[in-house]
Write a structure and sequence with these properties.
127 residues, alpha+beta, Rossmann fold, two-stranded parallel ribbon, 4 strands, globular
Length: 127
């Protein structure tokens, strides 16, 4: 497993993109099966009613922890209900969300307004 680390600072003296091998940087190697992440009962997580296709905040949190540091930028080009942006906000990351469907106003935008106002669902108690 490897992680791509990027430095987008104009003042960076090191290469902008660097491949890091997980075994060199992770104290505990993650396996392919993450049994600690609940995948049921997520219909209303983040105060967003969506029965199918929503990812658990704890899954997105694990991925963001692996690949970013505080203040890094997280890009989600399939924003959907806004789970990735919500988790990124809760973890003090910057985020960009892109969605082509019309429901962005009713799902993602409303969810992110609640998160910015301090909504305590999902991973909020853990971070």
């Amino acid at each position: 497993m490897y992680i791509v680390k990027s430095d987008y600072s104009k003042d960076a003296k090191a290469p902008r993109v660097q491949v890091l091998f997980a075994e060199d940087y992770l104290s505990i190697s993650l396996c392919d099966l993450w049994t600690n992440i609940n995948t049921t009962g997520l219909e209303a997580e983040g105060n967003v009613e969506l029965k199918n296709g929503k990812k658990p905040e704890s899954l997105i949190e694990t991925i963001i922890k692996l690949a970013t540091n505080e203040s890094d930028i997280v890009l989600d080009y399939h924003l959907g209900s806004g789970t990735t942006a919500a988790v990124a906000h809760k973890m003090n990351r910057q985020y960009i969300g892109i969605e082509q469907m019309d429901y962005i106003e009713t799902l993602a935008v409303e969810r992110l307004k609640k998160v910015i106002d301090g909504e305590q669902g999902g991973i909020s108690k853990a971070v």
